[in-house]
Write a structure and sequence with these properties.
Protein name: Histone acetyltransferase HPA2-related acetyltransferase
Shape: globular
CATH architecture: 3-Layer(aba) Sandwich
Strand order of the largest sheet: 1-2-3-4-5-6
CATH superfamily: Gcn5-related N-acetyltransferase (GNAT)
Organism: Sinorhizobium sojae CCBAU 05684
CATH topology: Aminopeptidase
Keywords: Acyltransferase, Transferase
Order of helices and strands: EEHHEEEHEH
Structural class: alpha+beta
GO molecular function: N-acetyltransferase activity
Length: 161
């Protein structure tokens, strides 16, 4: 899939499934994504979690997938999504879990292209909906999200066990 993005990009960005050879570039984006969510230094994810996450993208028994945004041979964004069943629908749901674009391409349409890539994958899989969460302080991202989807009105609670 190729999506036209902002005019300052030298070429179109291609959105495609991650491949094993992407690991080194994916890892850099993954680490930046985690750092932007407070998971760095002493709070960094254990390396085993990162390796397990990576391996799940290539395990046919796992419902976890990854797309990357590529520009001129460099990965500039990633998104991870998971298909799961629900008690309120027959078709599976798609949870867009992670979305990150490098600072160099932010506000140039790459995030929207990645989300559209997930929408396309969800349609092909016959899912009934795609949903995601964001932090209430993520106002810049919410400006994009408000254009692409509706707010559900639900508030998330969690208990770390």
């Amino acid at each position: 899939m190729v999506f036209p993005v902002g005019s300052t990009m030298s070429e179109n960005v291609s959105i495609r499934p991650v491949v094993r050879n992407d690991y080194d570039q994916w890892l850099v984006l993954w680490e930046h994504y985690n750092a932007s969510n407070g998971r760095s230094g002493e709070r960094a994810l254990d390396a085993d979690i990162t390796l397990m996450t990576w391996s799940r993208f290539f395990d046919a028994y796992e419902p976890m997938y990854a797309l990357v945004a590529e520009n001129n041979g460099r990965l500039v964004g990633l998104t991870h999504y998971i298909f799961h069943h629900s008690t309120t629908a027959i078709q599976p749901n798609c949870y867009l879990q992670d979305l990150f674009t490098s600072e160099a391409v932010q506000a140039r349409g790459v995030g929207q292209a990645l989300i559209n890539g997930v929408f396309d994958a969800a349609r092909r899989a016959g899912t009934s909906r795609v949903y995601w969460l964001t932090h209430e302080s993520n106002l810049t991202a919410m400006q994009l999200y408000d254009k692409l989807a509706e707010k559900s009105g639900f508030v998330m609670y969690r208990m770390v066990i």
